[in-house]
Amino acid sequence: MRTPIIARRVISQLLRNPRFLVLSIVAPLVIVYFLKVFFDTLPPTLDVGRYAIPVAAFLVHFLAFLLCAIALVQERTAGTLERMFVNGFRRTEIIGGYMLGYLGLATFQAAVALAEAIWLFKLDYDTKTLAALFVVVWILAIASVMLGIFVSTFARRESQVFPFVPLIILPSVFLSGLLMDADLLPEWAQWLGHAFPLYYANNVIQEVIKPNGSLNNAWGSLAVLVGYGVALLLLASRTLREVE
Question: Is residue 36 within 8 Å of 121, Cβ to Cβ?
Fold first, then answer.
């Protein structure tokens, strides 16, 4: 019942930290623009839609994971988590509060990154397809927040979050089918790619943007993506520590 109390406190903190908010929103917009500059140098026969939306989804995934992990580590080093435990808050209440608190930010990140990618690359999708793409990117953002919360339980300070980037985030770029068809990878790499949420998000996106594609054809990958976030939520609620 005390989860909304924590969520309101997190939202209040975000609103009092304009630099954090600007970084969270402006960074994906700038990177998507640089992506457009890069794709303008490639042959016009390249299927831009095959890469534009998945890369925008990856940016949301990366930033939601990194910023959430760093913010929660800062809460621990500042003693905020310790005070919550002293006041009788349970782990599930704390994790749920932070998840709800960052839900709005993740939703806004997903919306602006997707909108800019569609606008810059002049992608022509109908309303149903746009709604499906937003749902996928939004669910990926929520899973990324859960991943950031889970990883933060293993870091004593902010700098210890960054080693998780080459261990978790970067391999997903190469093994998720973002840059090439995952079926072309060695079998062991294909199995490893299944461990990353971006793999399932990319599968759904590629299915949705196909001619006559539909979200109904990718319910399996979408369900796994949702389950990924739920599993991380449960793990984080069990591994959250009071003090370092």
Answer: yes
CA distance 70 to 209: 34
What is the number of other CB atoms lying within 10 angstroms of the CB of residue 3? 19
- Judged by DSSP in three states, 244 sits in coil
Model confidence at 241, pLDDT cuts 50, 70, 90, reads low
Tokens 């790619």 belong to residue: 193
Rounded CA separation 125/110 (Å): 17
> What pLDDT score does 1 carry?
66
What is the chain's mean pLDDT, rounded? Answer: 83
Q: What ranges in the chain are assigned the alpha helix state H? A: 3-15, 18-39, 49-77, 80-86, 91-120, 127-152, 164, 170-175, 187-193, 197-208, 219-239
Distance CA 242, CA 82 (A): 5
Read off the tokens for 199. 């793999």
Q: Which residue's entry shows tokens 């080693």?
A: 163
* CA distances from residue 164 to 8, 89, 167, 207 in whole angstroms, order as listed: 28, 28, 5, 30
| pLDDT mean over 153-158 | 76
- Residue 218 parent element (H or E): none
User: What amino acid occupies position 27?
Assistant: A
Q: What is the pLDDT of residue 171?
A: 87
Q: Which are the contacts of 84, defined by CB distance < 8 A and separation ≥ 6?
A: 6, 94
Mean pLDDT of 124-143: 88
